[in-house]
Amino acid sequence: MPRHLLTDLHLKNIKPDDTRKRLNDGDGLFLLLSVKGGAHAWRFSYTINGTRKMLSLGTYPDTGLALARRKADEARALVAAGTDPSDIRKAEKADREKKRAARQREAAGLPPSGT
Predict the structure, then answer these.
(1) DSSP one-letter code for 86
(2) Taking the CB of residue 18, how many other CB atoms lie within 10 A of it?
(3) Cβ(101)–Cβ(78) under 8 Å?
(4) Contact by Cβ (8 Å): 55, 30
(5) C-alpha angle 25/93/30, rounded to 5°?
(6) What is the pTM of this model?
(7) CA dihedral sign of residues 20, 89, 52, 26
(8) pLDDT tens-place string over residues 41-70
(9) 10-to-6, 45, 82 alpha-carbon distances in Å
(10) What is the spatial order of strands in the sheet that 51-60 belongs to?
């Protein structure tokens, strides 16, 4: 599949009234254009275990083209290894929430949960 179809110049020339819905960079990475010209969203589309999925990689211009490509390459490597990047992201979020809850219990003077 072709890759790296977009350039920074393409992205800078996006007008608020652009009728396109997405700009493909190739190999599953694309920029989803917002309807009202707000922040545009980087998405990576992939198939794992016969299921089509989509992963959010950030918003443009906060996440630039180079960073979006790097994140997509990392996700591609996980998919090639048979791991779902979405599952890893969910596990990391659950771990952060667990640590946050433990800090809140400690700050409130409560014992750690499970004791």
Answers:
(1) H
(2) 13
(3) no
(4) no
(5) 10
(6) 0.80
(7) positive
(8) 999 999 999 999 999 999 988 999 999 999
(9) 6, 21, 33
(10) 22-26, 29-32, 40-48, 51-60
